[in-house]
Design brief:
- The structure holds two protein chains of two kinds.
- Chain A is α/β, with parallel strands linked by helices.
- Chain A is built from 22 helices and 23 strands.
- In chain A, helix 6 links the parallel strand 6 and strand 7.
- By secondary structure, chain B is of the alpha+beta class.
- Chain B has a single domain, classed as 2-Layer Sandwich (Alpha-Beta Plaits), CATH 3.30.70.260.
- Helices cover 25% and strands 33% of the residues of chain B.
- In chain B, strands 2-6-3-5-4 form a five-stranded mixed beta sheet, with helices on one face.
- Classes of the chains: A alpha/beta, B alpha+beta.
- The interface between A and B is medium-sized, with 24 and 20 residues.
- Strand 9 of chain A pairs parallel with strand 1 of chain B, so a sheet runs across the interface.
């Protein structure tokens, strides 16, 4: 086949099974767009490259397969950086392809020239500056292999314009790049892990994104049920175990239910599965699980011992390790521990004030969850609304919940929702967002409208950078500065200006009916919900403080009724 | 399925003990890397050290007889973060092998004398 570098890229992407690519064209990527013109690949025109990057992330996070985004040289590449860095911290398989100035001009400060390779070294799993069209034959499959193998991550391929235009003849095509086979663990380590588990009186499983990446949710559930082991999740582990599972404790860490953190405080064995002991999860790491031995299983060896020195660190695919452990573990009830866990949960559950009021954060999240149904995919932006959703939304399955964890990128929610909707056109996608976050990528409302994506935005509008305000209230003596948006915006009018249906919960006397209508809209739809600026996320661990010390003015008086025992009650896990 | 032993190899000639001595008193150690020889490989390796706030005292790099590969020698001080840095190095796609060696009077001794610098130990 006679083609050029650009044609080669498009052909290789087709062979990878890529059908949708978000991006924005520019001078240095025009040959690539010319090749796309002749391809069946659907190009989704974003309105900012960061939007394109997060649309691709929404596709990758919801499907578990690598997704591609395109940007041109210079500002196209720099605008992609945030989405790439976000994918690095959350281990998302993203392949970003950027145009670059022609090779002869590299290093001359040419128009729209930037050192994309140098800029992306610290935020990618690997990156390439391609120096010939022929090189693409191994670079493209290699990029997909690296992005999806072991711990997934982003890969950048920077392609100079003259390489895109370089004529090339291809005889045989390379095989598409695929994830390397799952990494097996050493069997003697499994024997040690099993022995530690059997000796434990008060074990807890802590699950993270690695469980979802490994497709190991079912194995986690079996291990937990067999040993009566409660399961806590990191922010990115939510959904791996159904929220209402009696052994599920919900999210751990800064905004966990107090019971969850206290149960971890008391455990004598912590089994960390696909987690990296992030500070938002552990609080003060030295005081995290102070009485516990730790088994840490992760596919990335550099995570073992990075924050907490494990009693036993196992580098392996979480699924492989769990399968091996299940084969060697006999079911074992732990009645004393189960009773203690139940008592802690009764005494220290999440308060969730206003859970029955659709106009307040928890009530809104619960109402949307009930209306959207289990099929819906949920994205969020970053801030108070994100934590309210993480605490209160009953996630049922892996990849139902897409949120920016490690980088904590405001502006993630809307484009990620568009990406999820493109990947699953038959499903409703709900994006919980805040007024601060939405403004950071609001231009993607145009993309949502143009593509007629079934994205419903639930905008919690408190006129503030709420989590900043909350920290200024709690830790900076109430000296509020730069956390209030003095100019109130008419978000409904803005949405309509983009061609997006909009509603305002402030002006209706039937809020539930309005929500129901919005969640059935055939295209994108925004619902603005006014939220009191004073509404805070509780409980809260002071940043840097130990998890047992939680600020919790909403804490209910301890109840001892049987209705919220460990095996039931709608508040299980929250 | 494959074993973790099939990953890029880390050859620990001597398992490095954890040292908490002040930087100047810590023992020097040499990391010998086999890397792919291309313009960005050194940026990947060196950037990794500065991102972890880990100082590299000396660097030497030359192509091997197979010009598509280079050998990189890094002179670093032992401390508790070295193990983490080595594991991060092992994740770099361009890094094919990692050997740890005692600093001694090897390559950096020769370089030190040529530059009129103290021989690392």
């Amino acid at each position: 086949m006679q083609t050029n570098g650009a044609g080669l890229i498009v052909k290789l992407l087709e062979r990878q099974g890529i059908t949708t690519i978000p991006g924005i064209p520019g001078g240095a990527s025009l040959p690539l767009y010319d090749a796309l013109h002749a391809s069946a690949i659907r190009h989704v025109l974003a309105r900012h490259e960061q939007g394109a990057g997060f649309i691709a992330q929404g596709m990758a996070r919801s499907t578990g397969t690598a997704a591609v985004c395109l940007g041109t040289s210079g500002p196209g590449a720099t605008n992609l950086l945030t989405a790439i860095a976000d994918a690095k911290l959350d281990s998302i398989p993203l392949v970003a392809i950027t145009g670059q100035v022609p090779r002869a001009m590299i290093g001359t400060d040419a128009f729209q020239e930037i050192d994309t390779y140098g800029l992306t070294i610290p935020i990618t799993k690997h990156n390439y500056l391609v120096s010939s069209a022929r090189e693409l034959l191994h670079v493209i499959p290699d990029a997909f292999r690296i992005a999806t193998s072991d711990r997934p991550g982003p890969v950048v391929i920077d392609v100079p314009k003259d390489v895109q235009l370089e004529a090339v003849t291809v005889g045989t095509w390379p095989e598409p790049g695929t994830a390397a086979p799952a990494m097996r663990c050493a069997r003697d380590q499994i024997a040690r892990a099993t022995a530690l588990l059997e000796a434990a009186e008060r074990p807890v499983l802590l699950i993270g994104a690695g469980v979802i990446a490994a497709g190991a949710s079912e194995l986690v559930r079996r291990l937990a049920e067999g040993g009566s082991i409660p399961v806590a999740a990191t922010l990115l582990g939510l959904g791996a175990i159904p929220a209402y599972h009696p052994l599920f404790l919900g999210m751990v860490g800064m905004h966990a239910a107090r019971a969850t953190n206290l149960i971890l405080e008391e455990c004598d064995l912590l089994v960390g599965l696909g987690v990296r002991f992030d500070d938002r999860a552990t609080g003060k790491a030295a005081e995290f699980c102070p009485n516990a031995r730790i088994i840490h299983i992760d596919v990335d060896a550099s995570e073992l011992g990075k924050i907490k020195t494990p009693t036993l660190g196992i580098q392996a695919d979480v699924g492989d390790a769990l399968q091996a452990m299940l084969a060697e573990t006999a079911p074992r009830p732990r009645p004393a521990w189960s009773a203690r866990v139940a008592a802690l949960r009764r005494a220290h559950r999440l308060a969730m004030p206003g859970a029955d009021d659709v106009r307040r954060p928890y009530g809104l999240v619960r109402a949307v969850a009930a209306l959207a149904g289990e099929d819906a995919i949920v994205t969020s932006d970053v801030g108070q609304h994100q934590m309210w959703v993480a605490q209160a939304f009953p996630f049922q399955r892996p990849r139902q919940w897409l949120t920016s964890g490690g980088l904590g990128t405001m502006g993630f929610g809307l484009p990620a929702a568009i990406g999820a909707a493109l990947a699953f056109p038959g499903r409703r996608v709900v994006c919980f967002t805040g007024d601060g976050s939405l403004l950071m990528n609001i231009q993607e409302l145009a993309t949502a409208a143009e593509e007629r994506t079934r994205v419903t935005l639930i905008l919690l509008d408190n006129g503030h950078l709420g989590l900043v305000r909350q920290q200024q209230e709690l830790f900076y003596g109430g000296r509020y500065h730069a956390s209030r948006f003095a100019a109130g915006l008419d978000f409904s009018a803005i949405a309509r200006g983009f061609g997006v249906e909009a509603h305002d919960l402030a002006t209706t006397s039937h809020p539930a009916a309005l929500l129901a209508r919005a969640l059935e809209a055939p295209g994108p739809c925004l619902v603005r919900v006014p939220i009191a600026a004073e509404a805070n996320v509780y409980p809260m661990v002071r940043p840097g403080g130990p998890n047992r010390e939680m600020i919790d003015p909403d804490a209910p008086v301890a109840e001892t009724t049987a209705s919220d025992a460990v095996d039931g009650g709608s508040d299980a896990g929250f | 399925m494959r074993d973790s032993s099939e990953r890029p190899t880390i050859h620990a000639e001597a398992n490095l003990a954890v040292h908490h001595a002040p930087a100047a008193e810590r023992r020097s150690v040499v990391l010998r890397l086999l890397v792919r020889n291309h313009p960005g490989a050194m940026s990947h390796v060196c950037g990794l050290f500065h991102r972890r706030l880990f100082n590299v005292d000396g660097i030497a790099c030359l192509p091997t007889t197979d010009a598509s590969r280079s050998t990189v020698l890094l002179l670093v001080r032992e401390d508790q973060r070295l193990e983490q840095v080595v594991r991060q190095l092992a994740k770099l796609a361009d890094v094919l092998e990692i050997h740890r060696e005692a600093a001694g009077d090897g390559a950096f001794g020769t370089v030190a004398r040529a530059l009129g610098c103290p021989v690392p130990r």
